[in-house]
Amino acid sequence: MKNLILGAAKGYGWDVLEPFVASRKKNCPNAKLVLFVEDISDFTRNKLVCAGVTLENFFFDSKFVANNTRWKIFAEYLARADCDNVLIADTRDVIFQGDIFAEFENFSDWLALPTEGDNFRGDQTGDTLNRQWLTEIYGATADKLLDKKIFCDGTVIGSRREVKIFAETLWAHVDEIQSRVNFRIHDQSVANWIIYNELLPVKNFFAIDIDGAILTMGLAGKFFIRGNKILRGEKIPAIAHQYERFEHTAQLADKIFRDKNFRANKSFVDLRSRIEQATSLLHAEKFDDAAKFFIRKFLAEKDFSHVVPALIRLWSVAVTKNFSRPLADLEAAAQIALKSVGNFPALTLKEICRLIGSSVEKNHFVDENFRASLISALTAAKNSLPAAEQERRDFCDELLKNLR
Prior knowledge:
The protein is α/β, with parallel strands linked by helices. The chain folds into two domains: 3-255, Spore Coat Polysaccharide Biosynthesis Protein SpsA, Chain A; 271-403. 46% of the residues lie in helices and 15% in strands. Helix 3 packs across helix 5 (160-178) and helix 5 (160-178) packs across helix 6 (187-196). The termini are far apart.
C-alpha cells in the first residue's frame, strides 16, 4: 500500500512544524509527507527537506483563509497522486503516536472523519462556537444539526478517490458560499453540512469515534498521559489533534519531538530565519545561545514589520520558561521590535496583550513603555466608539484587562 499525508503551511516556522514532522517520521515513517507551503523562511525550508518532506510551493488565494484554499490544492494534487490511502491533516497542532494507516489497512473505497466530544448544541461542554459558525452560513436551517456530533475536518483519512471527492466537494461549496458573503467561512461548518445532508458521493463513509484512532482533544473532556503517550481511556490514539491547547500535552510534545541538541546555522542570514532558530534554541533550553543569536541580528535591523508572527512566537515560547537574564534580554528585544511596528491586526494585538499579561503573571520582562502605549491606544479607541458598538468596546476592555 502506498500511503500519503498531505498538509499545508502558510507562514509557519520550523518551531511550529517540528512536532508534526518529527512525530510522523518516528511513528508513521512509511507514509510520504507532502506539504504545500507559502511564506516560509529559508531555514524552515531547509529543515523540512532534510526531514524528508516533499515541498510544493503554492499561492494561497488572499480571498480565502489558507484553511479553505487548501481543499482546492489537495483535490488538484490527488487527481494526479500515486497512492492508495491519504491522510489530510492540520500541521500546527497534530502529532502522530502510531501508524494511522495500520488502523485501516483492510479498508477499500472508504472515507472517515473523527468526531469531536460534543454536538452542535454544546450539551456536553457548553461550547457553541461550531454552532455559531454553522448558523452564520446556513441560518435557521442549521438547527436540524444541533443534536448531531461535530465532525472535525482537521484530519480526514481514506482511499485516494474518496478523499479527492471530499476535497472537491468541500471546495466547491466553500467557493460558492464565499462568493456571496463578506465574512470568513469556516470550512468545518461546510464539511458537516455536506456530510449530514449526504452530499458526498462516496461508497463507504464512517465516523471515527472520539475513543478511536484519532483523538480530537479540544472538546474531548477526559484524556491523560501515561509514559510518553496521550491516552483516551486505555487506548493510545494514533493521532492526537489539538494537543497544543493544553499545557501538559504541549509540554509532552516538546519533550518528545523537539531536537534537544539543536544548533543554530549561521549561514541563514535573514532576520526571520534568525528568529525561528532562536526559538528552536529556546525549545532546546539553550537560553544564552538563543539570546546572543537573535540579539546580534536584532541590533542591525530597523524594520520588523515582516516578522511579527515570528517575534510573537519567540516571545510566547520564552515566557513559558523559567525566568533568567538571557530570557529577559530576549523578551526585551522582541518587545522593542514589536513596539517599532506599531499597528497590528486585531488578533495579533489580542495575542500581544495576552503575552504581556502572562509575562506580568510569571514575573518575566515587560517593556513598560510598550505596555503604556498599548493601554493609551486601546483606551482612546474604546472612548471613540459609540455606545452601539458594544462588541468592539468589550473587545477593548478584554485587551485592557490583560494589560493592567
